[in-house]
Specification:
A hairpin with a 5-residue loop joins strand 2 and strand 3. By secondary structure, the protein is an alpha+beta fold. The protein folds into 2 domains: 181 residues; 394 residues, Alkaline Phosphatase, subunit A (3-Layer(aba) Sandwich), CATH 3.40.720. Helix 7 packs across helix 15 and helix 12 runs parallel beside helix 15. The chain contains 20 helices and 28 strands. The termini are far apart. Strands 16-15-17-10-18-22-11-23 form an 8-stranded mixed beta sheet, with helices on both faces. A 7-stranded antiparallel beta sheet has the order 2-3-4-8-7-6-5. A 4-stranded antiparallel beta sheet has the order 25-26-27-28, covered by helices on one side. It is globular.
Length: 653
Amino acid sequence: MKTRLISFFLSVVLAAFFTACDHKPVPLVFADIAQNLGVEVPGGENLVINRDFIRPGGGEKKARSLEGKYRGRVLRLEVIRGVSADEAARIRDIRVRMILSSFSNIPSPYPGAVTNKVSIPDSLRPKRVSLIRDGKALTLYILPANRRFVYGAMTEDIAAYKAGLFFLYDPSEKTLYRFDYFVPRNDIAGDEIQAFFKGIRLRSAKVPARAIPTEATREQSGMGKAEPGASLSMLAGKFRDYNLILVGFEPLGARHVSSYGYRRRTTPNLDAFAEKSFLFEKAISPSSWTLPAFMSWFTSMYPSRHKVLNKYSTYTAEKKVLANLAALSPSAVTLAQVLHDNGYRTAGFTGGASLSRDFGFDQGFDTYFDRKRFGGFDLTMPQAVNWLQEHRDKRFFLFVEGFDMHGLFPLDRTHLLRFLDNVPYRGKLGGGEDEYWQFRNRSLEQADLGLQGEDLRFLKAVYDSKIYEADRRFGMFISEVKKMGLLDKTIVIVSSGSGNEYMEHGRIDHGFSLYEELIDVPFIIRVPGMHGRIAQQVRTLDIMPTVIDLLDLKTGDAVREQMQGVSLVPVMAGEKLTLAGVSETDYLQHSFKRSIRTDDGWKLIVSLDTEERELYNLNDDPGEKVNLVGKYGRRAYELEQALFTCLRRGEGG
């Protein structure tokens, strides 16, 4: 009996054991651990986790990596805890830079050699999408990936997935999330990816999901004076159907503008205008002279991309062909064309010369004036006012430019003594156009100009006097726009193509080099009802995408692909973007230079013709006097890689 009872008990236990072994366990999904992770993802109840491991970091920092799959979709999530907002931003920037570099043709340090040379179809190039969540701008990267879920340059037959790369920071938990979401390539994969990321939610009840960095960075950036509050939710769509006025002072360096810290009061009207606008304290021009810089304004393409780098595309003894946008870049679309296609009346009134229609600047304009060579605001602004009076009841885009500060624009001597600090000049110079042009031509040949300190004081006073007169005309123009009742319904952008140099580096004029006195330009955007000073680095290359974003203009994919700049609307809303300032000049067949300026103050200038490299730490050496390339060779090499990667890949960050 006892034996039978034991056998029966044993059979029951064994049956239960084998039944349990035969039963398949319920798979773990993302929704099951959402509370622990601190984040919820769309479809988390279906994404089965097949990988989950934790690796320790320094201090309190710990990283957890997970992978989940469902119906061909794959989500990879990295959770890094114990990081500050600044550290999170640094980690994000490093990760993004590494990934985007895999799509580039990386230049070798040896002249003429190129590594990783891969032809990338436009459809497989990285794309940026700005997601508006909780009034904040977050950047989503749309990237191709192969069957092993690896990003990089590839052909159509290798690209198996379209993926979204996304970073999210929870300041209350000091946690950085990196999401990589892979979807099999199809026509609607991009829409699915965006919908997925829009649905991500932090579990923290204290703060909403936000972009890196935290609110503290908004204060550091100089934002916070916006009226009634510069949240992206207020910017998005608010200015649809507003007018646009774009004003170009040429050539005007930020170092000679009062509101940028210049000791002389050269720009009282521009200063007053800036007080009710967004003033970008560090704006980099894509070139150091008019023609390529303004073409970059209108195309958001670097000069080497739009190809209008010089006045002539062919220049030989037998043949001279003027550079023209339509001929050199037939697929390029200008800002004026985008606005025209969106129903705007378009007009441009310029001082001609390097802004002549011969180069393609009239592309997209209903009216384009360029008849006087090196004309100033005294000519262009009255014509612009007359045009406005005729078109004030319609949506319009008006471009007004003047060469009032140029050496070939006549000097009005009325205020010259003021800018000589009331100490008369006793030298031989007269301040005329012919005299200036001789200095400019001799500068190109690196001749000794024979200028003394007193002569330079006079030449700078001439420049400041011209700035003052241009500013007076600008003030009158804005007053007329206001009288017509248009100012509160108009976005106004003011900037310059370049500054001027006065022997800081041995030359007069502009165009030949890429030093700060030439590429550091004023950049002011008036958005009705909002204002602020923004300290972080931006580029005038960003004008076109910013306008498209502010005015909510309709564009095709080709235009989005074309633009190498980025919208500054997130910056105006208080977010931080890390933007490299890249500049180029191929000046009159005399100079071939490229430069990159990082947002933390390092700058590299590369001379393509002589292979000379110049490296400067602008924090310690704002005058660019001490070349550190011999001391910091590795940094120079890394900056050179970043410079040519940025130019080659067609990506603006």
